[in-house]
């Protein structure tokens, strides 16, 4: 049975419980992700539980595209992206996890800037 883990922004105003530690995290080189400096861990929406209500986030949508990027209203940490359509998968910023949890995950590199394919 997987052990839940917690992700938290710097100030603690936004905290999420994840059903399990990520086995893989992804570094994307698209124009937004490389500027954010995030590592994404992907979860089904049902595997993510907000621990703070309401989630005190502001959102950003690049060019009216497909996902909302959420950041803490207080400290500005990027927390997650959520889809704008019927998809149920979301990306959680794995850098919000404790270092030992992040260190145990496999790091993958995605060419989000061009091909959308993994580089490794």
Automatic annotation (TrEMBL):
UniProt similarity note: Belongs to the Gfa family.
What domain of life does the native source organism fall in?
Bacteria
**CENP-V/GFA domain residues:** 5-120
Which lineage is the organism of this entry classified under, starting from the top rank?
Answer: Bacteria, Pseudomonadati, Pseudomonadota, Alphaproteobacteria, Hyphomicrobiales
The family database entries (InterPro entries) matched by this protein are listed as:
CENP-V-like (IPR052355), CENP-V/GFA (IPR006913), Mss4-like_sf (IPR011057)
Q: Which PROSITE patterns match?
A: CENP_V_GFA
SUPFAM superfamilies in UniProt: Mss4-like
Keyword set includes Transmembrane: no
The organism of origin for this protein: Devosia albogilva
Q: Name one Pfam family in it.
A: GFA
By what name is this protein known?
Answer: GFA family protein
Gene3D superfamilies, per database record: 2.170.150.70
Keywords for the protein's UniProt record, in alphabetical order: Metal-binding, Zinc
